[in-house]
Amino acid sequence: MDKKEITEEMHLEKKWFEDAKNQTLETLPAFMNNILNGYVHDYGTICHAISACALAAAYAANNSDQGGITGFQASFVLWDFIRQWSYSSNRCGLRILDYDAMLYPGYADHYDKVISEEIWESLQEEAKKKLEQAKKNKEFASPNVVEHWRSIVDGKVPFGFRVGND
User: Fold this and answer.
1) Pairing of strands 162-163, 114-115
2) How many CA atoms lie within 13 A of 44 on its CB side?
3) For a Cys-Cys bond, which of 23, 55, 70, 82 suits 60, CB 3.0-4.6 Å?
4) Which residue, 115, 134, 114, 113, is CA-closest to 123?
């Protein structure tokens, strides 16, 4: 197979992402093979290629006899993927903001600097663990960071956030 040299400026990912939606368990291998082996990828295009392959696999699974998940389930899949791919060591939680919603006044509460009680407790617990590590190893963190952890353990919610319903 001759490989076509591509650049991000060509925006081939737009078609890849669209085609990903129609993949099945049967068509997925050829789809992925074409995207990964049909092109000479650069630093950026390989990222789009991997994203398209991941999306295609998710769509193929959802298009299978076992698929047909709800929007709620799809949201779980997204968060599961994000955690496993980029944040597997995250202990306190994550948040995604949709800045498009800022165009509508009814979504103002989405942008409050508020964290849940559960997130706050996780932050305090992690800060406590890090303080214990810092005690054992003086080179573990700078004094400013240690003081920040101590303030969290002592109940000071950082960065202007408050604890409440998020």
Assistant:
1) parallel
2) 9
3) 23
4) 115
Whether pLDDT at 1 is above 80? no
pLDDT (tens digit per residue) in 130-149 = 999 998 887 778 999 999 99
DSSP 56-69: HHHHHHHTSTT---
Kindly report, residue by residue over 28-52, the tens digit of the pLDDT: 999 999 999 999 999 999 999 999 9
**DSSP category for residue 166:** -
Nearest CA among 114, 122, 111 for reference residue 152: 122
Residue among 17, 89, 19 nearest 47 (CA): 17
3-state secondary structure of 26: coil
In this structure, what token pair is assigned to residue 166? 């998020």
Q: With 0.85 as the threshold, say if the pTM is over it.
A: no
